[in-house]
Amino acid sequence: MKKTALLTGITGQDGAYLADFLLKKGYIVHGIKRRSSLFNTDRIDHLYQDPHVSQRNFVLHYGDLTDSTNLIRIIQQVQPDEIYNLAAMSHVAVSFETPEYTANADGIGTLRVLEAIRILGLEKKVRFYQASTSELYGLVQETPQKETTPFYPRSPYAVAKLYGYWITVNYREAYGLYACNGILFNHESPIRGETFVTRKITRALTRIKLGLQDCLYLGNLDALRDWGHARDYVEAQWLILQQEKPEDFVIATGVQHTVRDFVNLAGRELDISIDWRGQGVGETGTDQHGKVIVKVDPRYFRPTEVETLLGDSTKAKEKLGWEPKTSFKELVAEMVCEDLKSAERDELVKKHGFAAYDYHE
Ligand code: NDP
Ligand code: GDR
């Protein structure tokens, strides 16, 4: 019998990698996508199957984490063996601007999925994965961070995810649900959202290289992150639900870099060497021809920042047999390579006289 998985957030970075991974494992994959005024399925279009064909193993449903009736109906219809709750308003900086919505989608949204499982009496059938985050550690209390490190969230996003974390633990303890948290550190890829810092950097530097953009504006260059590849991390998400007992796991590489390191390495991939001058708000990065191509813009500073994150995933290594496969250098190279291809496409469009708009946040 094929297993059935239901993914919230299937149109996001992790949703796309996980759907691909599960289909290759022989799962039937159902996903929840939001209604949007434009198509929002770019990342999963290669998996799309014509709804007119019977016997599909990839099915999409319209839905939203803020709508319980919709969640109950979809879960009842799909009768999944595994639910991966990946949907969230996932941008930390944006959560300061939309705190109430973030709490509703990321915090109460998690409760809605768990309650749907309980209302439908599926506690013994369904395994539930919650996309928890290293942002829970926020103002870090211990380095490196592991499963037992105390939390200190520093943004409306992290506070909402703290609720998601604990309600998952509570439903496991209260109702015997197989429910787990994956406490995942930053993970990136060529399909990372364009406003997260890594993708913003690789996209901008490739466009600067081809003369499509002048400057990359960034916030805190000294922030330290433990960056891995999304492809490796979705395997961990699956492994977490295959254990005998439900438990929570930290997933990280155990290696830390600054945002500035990321810029330098991405530059090197493009034969751009960056000379940094000044400090804080006045800081600039100049290329080897003396042109300023990076500037610090305080608009990207956060009201409360998470300065440093470094994960210890020893438990995942010992119990799941999981280890990251992609190095930091490989990750940056892959992202630069893919963004260079799309910058080259834009360059071609521009050469043929069509407008190549330059939207960047
Ligand atoms: P993305 O931002 O790429 O994807 C988020 C997904 O959630 C998208 O499919 C989005 O839909 C969907 N979504 C947002 N709001 C709602 C809502 N109200 N109802 C239904 N769907 C919604 O995030 P990632 O793939 O990077 O991350 C996946 C999960 O893991 C998130 O919960 C994130 O917070 C968490 N996480 C991510 C880490 C990372 O480094 N990537 C690290 C730790 C945790 P749409 O496409 O329409 O916007
Ligand atoms: P993060 O990722 O907040 O860690 O959350 P992001 O890439 O947004 O920021 C990482 C660090 O870079 C600094 N930074 C900038 N960030 C952005 N977005 N844009 C900038 O211009 C910029 N300049 C500097 C930030 O201040 C920060 O310190 C991600 C999300 O995927 C969350 O959903 C997830 O939970 C965590 O990773 C783990």
UniProtKB/TrEMBL annotation:
UniProt function note: Catalyzes the conversion of GDP-D-mannose to GDP-4-dehydro-6-deoxy-D-mannose.
Membrane-spanning residues: none
Top enzyme class: lyase
Cofactor: NADP(+)
Protein name (Swiss-Prot/TrEMBL): GDP-mannose 4,6-dehydratase
Known EC number: 4.2.1.47
Family of this protein: Belongs to the NAD(P)-dependent epimerase/dehydratase family. GDP-mannose 4,6-dehydratase subfamily.
Domain NAD(P)-binding residues, every copy: 6-335
Catalytic activity annotation: GDP-alpha-D-mannose = GDP-4-dehydro-alpha-D-rhamnose + H2O
Gene3D superfamilies: NAD(P)-binding Rossmann-like Domain, UDP-galactose 4-epimerase, domain 1
Alphabetized UniProt keyword annotations: Lyase, NADP
Cell membrane recorded as keyword: no
InterPro entries cross-referenced by the UniProt entry: GDP_Man_deHydtase, NAD(P)-bd_dom, NAD(P)-bd_dom_sf
